[in-house]
Write a structure and sequence with these properties.
The protein is of the alpha/beta class. 47% of the residues lie in helices and 15% in strands. The protein has an eight-stranded mixed sheet with strand order 1-2-4-3-5-6-7-8, sandwiched between helices.
Length: 318
């Protein structure tokens, strides 16, 4: 009996400690990926060209010509954050402004195909920031879109100050799509008129739950619970509160939902969950056949472009 009592007491002491340590590891693993920031830019420049050949040459050419600019502001929490911006191909006839938001462990370079699409195909002004802890921006950790949305809202204000358009679309991919959806439920200025989310997750909890199962074959309890507590203590937010679906429920402005049906990183099931959560205002859904994560444009560039073009026309008419 005494031996059993000692085992129970030992378990009571060890299991919470193990859970706490595992939670700290999970929080670091998820929110402090390496390499990151400036050290990772060369990899992402190559990634941009793999998604659309010639992207970085196009970017460098605009920069050399003085058309593309870099700017920095102070983010929501005091860190310096960076963005690049470029006017429409024909500025005198610009059709609006696009804010392009990148994904997890990426930066402004990766989704140059979207910047080119908006500028060269749609004649939009475009601003494309580095989220905190990514690219040239400072920041203590990846914020998974939840607090990043406040920075994107700042960038939207900057873009409006530059160009003064009354039609602005926010277009994000992966974590950038989650940022877009999370932003969509906030009290926003009237010039932000539409949103495009491409393969975003329904919540940080749901995404990390999937990643934990895929990578470590572990259930969410107790590791994810512990990691969320660590995140709350360090960064001021928990995994469950960082919810796209909760924000979408408040969104009244038009949104296009895109997801590849072969996506197993952000599971395809998140698309329907996100789509159903938006119960107010206009919405569309497009499933990119055979596309894996963040690959819908690369697999179907013409169809992707036309879906976005048609959605923007519809959003403008509402």
């Amino acid at each position: 009996m005494k031996k059993l009592t000692r085992l129970v007491i030992t378990a009571i002491i060890i299991l919470p400690l193990a859970s706490c340590l595992a939670g700290r590891y999970m929080c670091n693993y998820a929110l402090l990926p390496t390499p990151h920031g400036v050290d990772d830019i060369e990899r992402t420049r190559h990634k941009a060209d793999s998604l659309l050949p010639g992207s970085t040459a196009w970017y460098d050419g605009l920069q050399a010509a003085g058309v593309l600019k870099d700017t920095a502001i102070t983010g929501y929490n005091g860190y310096k954050i960076h963005a690049a911006y470029v006017p429409a191909a024909n500025p005198a006839d610009a059709q609006g402004t696009a804010v392009v938001v990148h994904g997890y462990t990426d930066n402004r370079f990766v989704f140059l195909y979207l910047v080119r699409m908006y500028r060269d195909e749609f004649n939009y002004n475009v601003i494309f920031p580095d989220l905190q802890y990514h690219g040239y921006s400072e920041g203590p950790a990846a914020q998974m879109g939840w607090l990043d949305r406040f920075d994107v809202e700042k960038w939207a204000e900057v873009a409006h100050g530059i160009w003064g358009d009354d039609f602005m679309v926010v277009h994000g991919v992966s974590m950038g799509a989650a940022t877009t959806m999370m932003m969509s439920g906030d009290d926003l200025p009237p010039y932000i008129r539409a949103f495009v989310e491409d393969c975003g997750y329904s919540s940080v909890w749901d995404q990390f739950k999937s990643n934990l199962k895929q990578s470590f074959h572990l259930p969410p309890f107790p590791i994810l619970n512990s990691a969320s507590i660590v995140c709350k203590s360090r960064y001021g937010w928990g995994f469950k509160e960082a919810s796209s679906v909760n924000q979408l429920a408040k969104c009244e402005r038009p949104m296009l939902f895109i997801h590849g049906d072969a996506d197993d990183f952000v599971p395809f099931s998140h698309l329907q969950k996100n789509y159903d959560a938006k119960v107010k205002g206009y919405k569309e859904m497009w499933v990119a056949e055979g596309a894996v994560h963040a690959n819908s444009y690369a697999r179907h560039p013409e169809e992707y472009t036309e879906h976005v073009r048609a959605f923007l026309a519809k959003a403008k008419s509402l």
